[in-house]
Amino acid sequence: MQTVICPGSFDPVTRGHIDIIKRASNTFERVIVAVFVNKAKVPCFTIEERIHFLKKALAGMENVEIVACEGLLADYARERNAIAVVKGLRAMSDFEYEFQMALTNKMLNPDLETLFISSSTENMYVSSSMVKSVASFGGNIRDFVPECIHDEIRDRLCGGGKNHES
Ligand code: PNS
Which residues are catalytic? Predict the structure, then answer.
């Protein structure tokens, strides 16, 4: 079975992430969505919350598995016999960071490929940081996160849902 991994912090998951995961699941037999503890970032949501949002947003997708991960992606990929890491690329600004990770993973696990799927135009500028920033000022994040988890994310980021646009 051709297994690929979509790794990330997903803090929180956005419409852009969901688009990439869905397109990966249409292309490969099995997709593992790996929610990593990224030591370089202080997360806003706990691992459990991030997984809860992903499970809701990806409900019904039979070939998608969601897991919490610690340690090296290259090692986890080997453990799960994954053939590739699949990531979304929005703009050139993503490229340097993603290229560095792809080369590092290749060095750590030479059998592992990194494949990039280009972002859909409507999600070109969507990021988890932007969602958190807009929501923290009470702005409308409806277009940026999946509808089924919008209220939960908004309420959590806006402190009870007050002072926001719906
Ligand atoms: O959504 P993010 O924060 O850009 O995802 C980054 C992530 C989690 C994919 C990256 O930090 C990662 O692969 N972490 C696991 C640790 C690891 O393997 N580090 C070496 C390669 S950079």
Answer: 17, 41, 90, 128
At residue 98, φ and ψ (nearest 5 deg) are: -70, -40
Please identify, by atom number, the ligand 1 atom nearest to the C-alpha of residue 34: 8
Residue 38 CA: nearest ligand 1 atom is 11
Question: If the chain, 166 residues long, is cut into consecutive pieces of 10 residues, what is the mean pLDDT of each piece?
Answer: 96 98 98 91 93 98 97 97 97 89 98 96 94 94 97 87 46
pTM above 0.90, yes or no: yes
Peptide bond preceding 110 in cis form (omega within 30 of 0): no
Domain with residues 3-123, CATH architecture: 3-Layer(aba) Sandwich (3.40)
Please state, in angstroms and rounded to a whole number, the distance separating the CA atoms of residues 19 and 37. Answer: 22
**Ligand 1 pocket: which residues have CB below 6 Å?**
7-9, 36, 38, 72-74, 101, 104-105
Joined tokens for residue 68 = 């919490």
Task: Kindly report the backbone phi and psi dihedral angles of residue 17, in degrees, each rounded to the nearest multiple of 5, phi listed first.
Answer: -60, -45
